[in-house]
């Protein structure tokens, strides 16, 4: 996966990507909370938020109502925002000794 936890990403698709993403999500930036490599999805803070109804559960101490939760979105719908040039970019890799380094395809810097 080219996207990692705590990366900042920008949403590049909206309307055509199913019901999870609203067109208003396009261009939004957020932090990656979780990466789901086997499903090729990511969870981005504040993006694709749904409200879920919760039943009151006194044993667990919650009173019910709605909780807001981010849904996983396809990783193809996001682009990494480079922390060096602050632009959404494609990610490349460079082999540095025996470690694989991610690089920004726009500015060539390590990200
Ligand atoms: Zn860059």
Overview of this structure, please?
It is built from no helices and ten strands. It has 111 residues and is an all-beta fold. The protein has a domain of 74 residues: Roll (SH3 type barrels). A six-stranded antiparallel β-sheet has the order 6-3-2-1-7-8, with no helix packed on it. It is elongated. The protein binds zinc ion. Zinc ion (ZN) binds next to loops. The site of zinc ion has 8 residues, from loops.
Quick recap:
Helices cover 0% and strands 43% of the residues.
Tags for this entry?
111 residues; mainly beta; SH3 type barrels; six-stranded antiparallel β-sheet; 10 strands; 0% helix; elongated; binds zinc ion
State the helicity in percent bands.
under 10%
The SSE string, one letter per element, is EEEEEEEEEE
- Assembly state (oligomeric): single chain
Q: Low-confidence parts, pLDDT < 50 over ≥5 residues?
A: none
The CATH topology of one domain is what? Answer: SH3 type barrels
Task: Please name the CATH architecture of one domain.
Answer: Roll
CATH level 1 name of one domain = Mainly Beta
Shape: elongated
Small-molecule binders here are: zinc ion
Distance between the termini: 14 Å
Total count of helical runs of at least 4 residues: 0
What characterizes the major β-sheet? 6 strands, antiparallel
Alpha-beta content class: mainly beta
Radius of gyration using CA atoms only: 17 Å
Compute the average pLDDT: 90
Q: What is the number of beta strands? A: 10
Query: What percentage of the residues does DSSP assign to strands (E)?
Result: 35-45%
- The order of strands across the largest sheet is 6-3-2-1-7-8
């Amino acid at each position: 996966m080219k996207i990692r936890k705590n990366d900042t990403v920008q949403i590049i698709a909206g309307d055509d990507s199913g019901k999870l993403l609203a067109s208003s999500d396009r261009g939004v930036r957020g932090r990656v909370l979780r990466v789901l490599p086997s499903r090729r999805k990511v969870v981005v803070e504040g993006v694709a938020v749904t409200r879920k109804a919760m039943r009151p559960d006194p044993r667990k101490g919650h009173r019910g109502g709605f909780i807001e939760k981010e849904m996983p979105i396809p990783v193809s719908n996001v682009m990494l925002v480079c922390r060096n040039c602050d632009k959404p970019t494609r990610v490349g890799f460079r082999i540095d000794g025996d470690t694989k380094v991610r690089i920004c395809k726009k500015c060539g810097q390590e990200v």
